[in-house]
Specification:
This protein has helices spanning about 5-20, 25-60, 70-80, 85-95, 100-120, 145-150, 175-180. By secondary structure, it is an all-alpha fold. The radius of gyration is 30 Å and the shape is flat.
Length: about 200
């Protein structure tokens, strides 16, 4: 996961506030909430991508031996992402072990499967690459809530909220596709040729 420079500034301010708690300005609280939302979105997208990869792997495994190269590539990607090989994968690799890539993958999968079984028998949880979903960040200490105290109304107002990020004065809005790729203009018809009188 990579953070932009703005996100790193927000993260740095949040960590500094965690070490030395002080009331935060409302803007910093909103920045932290936006960052938490972005991290949640990335985590859920990683979960969707993992589910897609596993479904694709099962589809390629079912289509063997015709999908051999695609299956081996997907299995390598899945293993790199922390996939625990299933008995179906081991059986498929045993049938394909005549090839050098399949033989190497079979050895790797057998080691991973054995490690997984030993961990389950010992009562330890097997490590999973995607973290468990975390609870939503509801509020941070400080900000306007600490400054205003009891001045806040008990019921939230029903006014529409402002956009998440207003455009900066020097920043241009995103152009529409019709502005970037204008429609083609048809060429004007050529004027009829003039007939000249021969005198």
């Amino acid at each position: 996961m990579a953070f932009s420079a703005d996100e790193l500034r927000v993260l740095r301010r949040a960590l500094a506030n965690a070490l030395h708690p002080t009331p935060l300005p409302e803007e910093d609280v909103q920045d932290c909430l936006r960052l938490a939302g972005a991290v949640d979105e990335v985590v859920s997208e990683a979960g969707r991508l993992r589910a897609f990869l596993l479904a694709d792997l099962a589809r390629y495994r079912d289509a063997l031996p015709g999908s051999l190269s695609g299956y081996l590539e997907l299995l390598q990607d899945a293993l790199a992402a922390g996939y625990d090989p299933r008995p179906d994968d081991l059986a498929a690799l045993r049938a394909l072990r005549a090839g050098p890539v399949a033989a190497a993958l079979l050895e790797r999968c057998q080691v991973l499967a054995e490690r997984s079984v030993r961990a389950r028998l010992a009562g330890r949880a097997v490590s999973v690459s995607a973290p468990a979903p975390r609870s939503r960040l509801l509020a941070l200490p400080g900000g306007l809530a600490a400054a205003e105290g009891a001045e806040r109304p008990s019921k939230p107002s029903r006014t529409p909220s402002a956009p998440a990020r207003p455009a900066a004065p020097g920043e241009r809005p995103m152009p529409k596709p019709s502005e970037v790729f204008p429609p083609r203009r048809r060429p004007a018809p050529a004027p009829p040729p003039e007939e000249r009188a021969v005198s």
